[in-house]
Amino acid sequence: MEYPVDAETWFDAATKAINTGRAISNVAGKQANIFMSEMESATKIHKTITWMILVFVLLNFYFFTQWSKNNILLPIQKLTNMTQKIATGDFSHRVAIKSENEIAKLGCSFNKMTDDLQSSTHQIIEAKDRHRFF
Question: Max CA-CA distance within the chain?
């Protein structure tokens, strides 16, 4: 049986094909390594940005919580305590107004209501005292 190509020619062609395949594989491997390096770098950048955003959000949450506590919760708690004292008949307390927001307006209304209650209570007591003498 006769072959169209002799063994040495076939071996040279196969060796050339293998070497070409290895060269292509090396180039592809280098490109893949460059791509992987770029991906790792991008991943590090994204992780850093994600941590920075998380820290920023947590700090904002903390400061908002503190602001809410100081500007909303504590004034309302003070008003609640004053209301309980006034409910017992102690009209000597007034709310200190430190701002011009809605809580401060509530405090002003509370002080006016306390003044009116104190005045009405004194009038009722005086009327009772006058009625006793007659």
Answer: 150
